[in-house]
């Protein structure tokens, strides 16, 4: 098996794989992504954060407005409080935040644009609209994903933390965010600690027919592709020592209302922070 076949095997298992696919070193590295939830309590190599931020700033940004920021939390006491705010019902859900040297809080940030527009006699009314909120959130996500690629290229591990929205207002206050900004998600960064018996491996994805449509969206074809995914998903859960559960059961599980853990109040928190979402 070639190195490329092995990468596809990890990503798709026995499911249909692309028959022809372009390859280079960057694509190969992307296929190796896995979330890391066990960290060594070691500092990041010198310059790693700056490299991640340069990569993040190299992402496209809507209208060159740079409507995102990142708060790098390394102070252990502050990081512990951040972990607490993100833990929700399960008190130790994100305890690995305490082991990792750094958590990056990615901020969808209209604060600079708002001040500049008001000072410049412009019309900041656009910031009352859902599109401005989405623009800043998309910018933050694109920047963060570039930082992830940079981190992984340096042998570091990461995991995104959407649970940073559980207590959006409290977190914003904790890190002194200005109005017209909020933490869209967190990103834990550190050196992976692969624990014996808990190997964090590449998580298989459904076949491309589930997500790739040609010219017109084909719902039936997309859903049909999911049947093959169950077997790979089951193998992965078994490998991780997780309880037996189908992927479709997982979808139902994660869509339970109580899983929102406070995020059901997000709209209200956003309005308090200045986003009117019209
Ligand atoms: C926006 C976003 C938020 C996430 N939030 C969490 C989280 O709060 N806790 C967690 O353990 N993983 C979180 N994840 C990681 C996903 O569970 C993970 O990416 C997914 O299961 C696929 O696994 P992989 O990243 O190893 O391929 C999040 C991922 C994304 C993209």
Automatic annotation (TrEMBL):
<dbReference type="Pfam" id="PF00881">
    <property type="entry name" value="Nitroreductase"/>
</dbReference>
<dbReference type="InterPro" id="IPR029479">
    <property type="entry name" value="Nitroreductase"/>
</dbReference>
<dbReference type="InterPro" id="IPR000415">
    <property type="entry name" value="Nitroreductase-like"/>
</dbReference>
<protein>
    <submittedName>
        <fullName>Nitroreductase family protein</fullName>
    </submittedName>
</protein>
<keyword id="KW-0560">Oxidoreductase</keyword>
<comment type="similarity">
    <text>Belongs to the flavin oxidoreductase frp family.</text>
</comment>
<keyword id="KW-0285">Flavoprotein</keyword>
<keyword id="KW-0288">FMN</keyword>
<keyword id="KW-0614">Plasmid</keyword>
<dbReference type="InterPro" id="IPR016446">
    <property type="entry name" value="Flavin_OxRdtase_Frp"/>
</dbReference>
<keyword id="KW-0521">NADP</keyword>
<feature type="domain" description="Nitroreductase">
    <location>
        <begin position="34"/>
        <end position="191"/>
    </location>
</feature>
């Amino acid at each position: 098996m070639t190195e490329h076949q092995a990468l596809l095997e990890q990503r798709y298992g026995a499911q249909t794989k692309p028959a022809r696919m372009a390859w280079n070193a960057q694509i190969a590295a992307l296929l190796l992504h896995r979330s890391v939830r066990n960290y060594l309590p070691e500092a990041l190599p010198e310059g790693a954060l700056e490299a991640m931020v340069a990569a993040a700033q190299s992402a496209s940004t809507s209208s060159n407005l740079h409507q995102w920021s990142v708060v790098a939390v390394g102070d252990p006491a502050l990081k512990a409080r951040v972990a607490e705010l993100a833990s929700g019902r399960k008190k130790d859900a994100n305890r690995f935040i305490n082991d990792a040297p750094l958590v990056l809080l990615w901020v969808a940030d209209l604060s600079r644009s708002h001040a500049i527009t008001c000072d410049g006699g412009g019309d900041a009314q656009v910031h009352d609209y859902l599109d401005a909120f989405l623009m800043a959130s998309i910018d933050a996500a694109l920047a963060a994903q570039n930082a992830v690629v940079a981190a992984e290229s340096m042998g570091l591990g990461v995991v995104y933390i959407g649970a940073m929205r559980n207590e959006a207002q409290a977190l914003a206050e904790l890190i002194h965010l200005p109005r017209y900004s909020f933490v869209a998600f967190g990103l834990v960064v550190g050196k992976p600690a692969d624990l014996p018996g808990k190997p964090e491996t590449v998580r298989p994805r459904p076949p491309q027919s589930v997500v790739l449509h040609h010219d017109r969206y084909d719902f039936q074809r997309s859903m049909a592709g999911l049947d093959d995914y169950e077997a790979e998903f089951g193998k992965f859960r078994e490998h991780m020592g997780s309880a037996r559960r189908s992927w479709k059961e997982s979808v139902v599980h994660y869509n339970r209302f109580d899983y929102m853990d406070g995020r059901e109040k997000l709209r209200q928190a956003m309005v308090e922070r200045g986003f009117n979402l019209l």
